[in-house]
Each structure stands twice: as C-alpha cells, then as structure tokens.
C-alpha cells in the first residue's frame, strides 16, 4: 500500500505509485511517448521561380508567355492577382505627391514653397502699403497656410521664422482694419513663436489698446508706452 502524503517527503506516494506500475511512470512501463515529426521539406520545393517581364512603356510587370503555359489554372490566377497588386502599388508610389523616404536635410532654404511664401508675403506688404487691408489679410492668410503645411521632414525653424513674420504682418493689417480680437490672436501666436521679438509684444499692446483693456497717459507718446509694455512682457 503506498504511503500517505508526508510533508517530510512530498513525493513519496508518487514514487511508490510508479514503482507499483513496474517503474514505467505514467506510461505503464512502455517508456516516454514517441513523437514522429514529418521529414523536412527541401527548400527548393518551397520556392517557385517565375520568368517575369517588364513593359518598357508602362513599367508593368507580367508573367512571360513561356512560364504562363506551364502553370496550373489556379496557380496562374493567384500569380496574376499578386502581380496586379504589385503593379498597383508601384504606380501609387510613382505618382505619390510626396516622397515616402525623406530627402537629406537642406542646409540652404531654397525650394519652390519658400519662393511662393515670400512672393505672397511681398504682395501682402504691397497691399498693406496701399491701405488695402482686407486684401493684405487674405494674402497673409494664404502665405501662413503654405508655411504651416510644410512636410514634416523639413526643418521646423523655417516654419517658425516664416509664420512669425507673416502673422505679425497680418496682426498689423487686422489692427488697421479695426479687427482687434483677430490682431490679438495673431500677436499671441507670434509671441509664442519668438518671445524675445519686440514686434510681437508691440502688436499685442496695440490690440489690447484697441479693445480698451489698456490705456496710456495722454501726455506719454505711444512708442514710449508700448516700449514699457514690451520690457515688462519680455522680462
């Protein structure tokens, strides 16, 4: 009779049970079960080489006529579907508006987008000088949209420099058009982009004065009053 469970020898009853079965353990004396594994498939049988051809005009990949004749119906259909997927993907990559692999960083800011932004900003400045403030606001807005939608791989300093100047000019146009809330919003963004730039604080002071939130002494020139505000904000 096998011994009972004991804390001094917790496996005694198991050993006794295996001995009573002839020492064969759980398999009744027949030893450990044997697992038969299938023979490894040769690598050559897993790889199928096809003769492909590329159309020089359309750049489409297709199965050559010699290989197509030796394929089974179901295999040929699967292969044609795979080639169609590859051709669609290659055409999409060729026609993509932006490259998927970022180009190396440009040390000199010289690209069509920068030229377009500069041209829009200059047109806005000309409209502002001609007192066409609404037109200037529209041109500055288009320039700001072009600057803020640069590709992610381009240096962020370009966006910061361009937006700070454009929004500062648009804040001036808003102030000249008595649109004080819009001018204040642009001035706040300019300050966030370039905190130590005095023009952003000047635009904010002008907008706050237009909203009636700040008043300057009548005997104090505006530039002296705004300079004191700039010093206080920057400090």
Automatic annotation (TrEMBL):
Region (Disordered): 1-30
Gene Ontology terms for molecular function: Hsp90 protein binding
Keyword match Lipid biosynthesis: no
Biased composition, class Polar residues, residue ranges: 1-20
Residues of the signal peptide: none
Biased composition, class Gly residues, residue ranges: 21-30
Full protein name: Translocation protein sec72
Organism this protein belongs to: Puccinia striiformis
């Amino acid at each position: 009779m096998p011994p009972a469970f004991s804390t001094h020898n917790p496996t005694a009853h198991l050993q006794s049970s295996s001995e009573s079965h002839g020492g064969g353990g759980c398999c009744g004396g027949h030893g450990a079960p044997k697992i038969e594994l299938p023979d490894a498939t040769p690598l050559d049988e897993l790889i199928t080489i096809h003769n492909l051809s590329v159309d020089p005009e359309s750049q489409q990949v297709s199965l050559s006529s010699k290989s197509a004749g030796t394929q089974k119906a179901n295999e040929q259909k699967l292969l044609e579907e795979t080639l169609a997927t590859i051709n669609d993907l290659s055409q999409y990559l060729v026609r993509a508006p932006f490259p998927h692999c970022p180009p190396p960083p440009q040390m000199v800011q010289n690209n069509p987008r920068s030229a377009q932004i500069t041209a829009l900003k200059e047109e806005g400045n000309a409209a502002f000088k001609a007192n066409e403030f609404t037109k200037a606001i529209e041109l500055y807005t288009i320039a700001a949209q072009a600057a803020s939608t640069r590709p992610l791989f381009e240096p962020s300093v370009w966006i910061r420099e361009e937006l700070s100047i454009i929004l500062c000019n648009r804040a001036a146009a808003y102030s000249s058009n008595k649109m004080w809330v819009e001018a204040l919003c642009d001035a706040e963004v300019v300050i966030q982009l370039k905190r130590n730039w005095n023009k952003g604080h000047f635009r904010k002071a002008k907008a706050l004065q237009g909203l009636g939130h700040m008043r300057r002494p009548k005997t104090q020139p505006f530039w002296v009053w705004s300079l004191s505000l700039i010093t206080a904000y920057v400090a």
